[in-house]
Amino acid sequence: MDLHSIKALFLDMDGVLWHGKNPIGDLPSIFHKFQKIGIIPLFGTNNSTRTPEAYRDYLAKMGVEINSDQVITPAVGAAYLFQRDFSINARIHVFGSNALKEYLQKAGFSLVDENADIVLVSLDKEMTYQKVAVAMKLINEGAAFYATNLDNVLASENGWIPGGGVMVNAVQTCTGVSPIVIGKPNTIMANIACEKTGLHPSEILAVGDRYDTDILGGIRAGCRTALVLSGVDSKSSIACYAEQPDLICQDLNTIADQLLTERSQ
């Protein structure tokens, strides 16, 4: 794959940048290589349990300095989508994390527990029967049903844990309504990356460790794609898919070195 046209990266985080609290490779050195050749890094994750500011601070602890507006979470995608399709006056019920609620409130939305225009379901580590019942009632009353993502499991330091898809499935099962999904493999977050950089999708390399979210989302958005083997998927696990990533690399440092080599030629 010719990487000369690539001007920005749309990077997944877990499995690409770190496993839990452990960085994958020498991240300061890797991002110095990107900076050296003028590659713009943006970050996209389906995990909405942290705000963009929290991700910025987490990366800073690993020696990588970025701005919070380089981080695109489902909360960022939700605010973008709701402002476009509803209005800033839309009333939103959030079945999800405090970080998700905080971002939407800062974006100017009102969060409610009744008379909602939108129900947004995401990972909630304090999931209860009552929370499912409230979401069900509001959707049955006519609220639009949105989900941050459909990931049923998440990687953690202690192995796999339930993901936001568990909450979404509970609400979908009892309402019979399918949600509009904001996170990858939907293209909303990649579209935001294009708007932020002013680049054509083909000038952005979407990098991830999961085919069904990161790579498929990049393909659908028209980005170039690179699967890293430092996380969930392997060459054998994606062999069944008709559309393959443009690159399959061991890790992010391999991509950085390839970009550096091509730009020096």
List key phrases describing it.
15 strands, metal ion binding, Rossmann fold, 6-stranded parallel sheet, 2 domains, HAD-SF_hydro_IIA, 9 helices, HAD_sf, metal-binding, 5-stranded parallel sheet, magnesium
Question: How do the strands and helices of this protein lay out in sequence?
Answer:
Blueprint lengths: L7 E4 L6 E2 L2 E2 L3 H10 L3 E5 L7 H10 L9 E2 L1 H12 L5 E5 L2 H9 L3 E2 L6 E4 L7 H12 L3 E4 L5 E4 L2 E4 L1 H12 L4 E2 L6 H10 L6 E5 L2 H11 L2 E5 L18 E3 L2 H12 L2
Parallel strand pairs: 1-4, 1-13, 4-5, 6-7, 6-8, 8-9, 9-12, 13-14, 14-15
Antiparallel strand pairs: 2-3, 10-11
Helix pairs in contact: 1-9, 3-4, 5-6
The main β sheet shows up as: 6 strands, parallel
For the termini, the CA-CA separation is 15 Å
Radius of gyration of CA atoms, rounded to a whole number? 18 Å
Going by helix content, strand content and strand pairing, the class is: alpha/beta
Instruction: Compute the number of helices.
Output: 9
* CATH topology type of the largest domain: Rossmann fold
